[in-house]
Amino acid sequence: MARKSARFSGGARLAFRSFAGTGDAAIMHPPLDTDEYDVALEQVATRLSKARRVVALTGAGVSAESGLATFRGAGGLWEGHRIEDVATPSAFQRDPALVWRFYNARRANLRTVQPNPGHRAFVELEDYFVNRSEGEGAFTLATQNVDGLHRTAGSRRVLELHGSLQRVRCTRCSYLAATDEALPDLPHCPQCGQLLRPDVVWFHEMLPADIWRAAAEATAICECFLVVGTSAIVYPAAGLIDAARAAGAMVVVINPEATSASRRGGLALRGRSGVVLPQLMQRLRGGAA
Ligand code: BJW
Ligand code: ZN
User: Fold this and answer.
1) CB within 6 Å of ligand 1 — which residues?
2) How many Cα atoms sit within 13 Å of 235 on the Cβ side?
3) pTM over 0.85
4) Is 211 a domain residue?
5) What are 145-159's pLDDT values in tens digits?
């Protein structure tokens, strides 16, 4: 497998904008009043403090506070297209230039963003569980995000279910490369000359088998399953939530909005991940948030 690593050398700014808010979790989205929120936070911290194996499933909402747009939020269109219209093999076949414009804009935008307190709280959570109990397998972060921000923040056991914006692969041969540099409008394979594509998982494509298996296995034995910043409508990733429930895990949904995951039961902490997760971490460490 050919591998190439380089730095960004510029590129267009992203045409769509972020919709991250700035207020306090319990104030901005108040389905729980402050006392109820506090009780729920304490409940979750208590349950987490007894868990030996924890899995988190994350989505675009976790990166919203870094300035990256979510897929289905208000204005979540790109040049008038829904994600379902640009992130498919048939869209790429029909109009590769359009699809590459979408991905090159997002790749360029990645250079301008940093992990936020939510990403950093996940690093602390991993340290907490790894140091306290079962070693490296104690905390698994299964992310649908392709932005690499969990790894940049320092999370170690990250399963990228939908691939990575920072890799490209050939549509014909086995060429695969990690690259964060600006690419041509229509990049071609240095080995065989065929079109390259982003190494992400589009609709109607299978998730990488080894990564999916690792996520499913970790889910089957976890005691607590955190669902953070995802609408939980895209399968098979969303199916992990039901698998966790079936395995008897406590499911905790962290999101400013009600989602398909929170409507299916478990505990909900309504708020932004960059606020809720650090509060949760503080409780776990024994301080009142
Ligand atoms: C905050 C916040 C803050 C905001 N803090 N939160 C079973 C049932 C039904 C359908 C299917 C099924 N199995 C398969 C399907 C079809 C399809 C699917 O699920 N479709 C649904 C739309 C119904 N799935 C697939 O095709 C998958 N493949 C597959 O199943 O293969 C088998 C197969 C083979 C052959 C034929 C058919 C099937 C592949 C799915 C790949 C998804 N890929 C994308 C694009 C990746 C590349 C890219 O980035 O361009 O992945 S789509 C897009 O959605 C992206 C995301 O990872 C994914 C999930 O989105 P996410 O992260 O949840 O974002 P949003 O925007 O939806 O939600 C953000 C949330 O954050 C919101 O809730 C906000 O409230 C919240 N939020 N601020 C915390 N500060
Ligand atoms: Zn090739």
Assistant:
1) 20, 59-61, 64-65, 70-73, 83, 87, 144, 146, 162, 200-206, 229-231, 233-236, 255-257, 259, 272-274
2) 4
3) yes
4) yes
5) 999 999 999 999 999
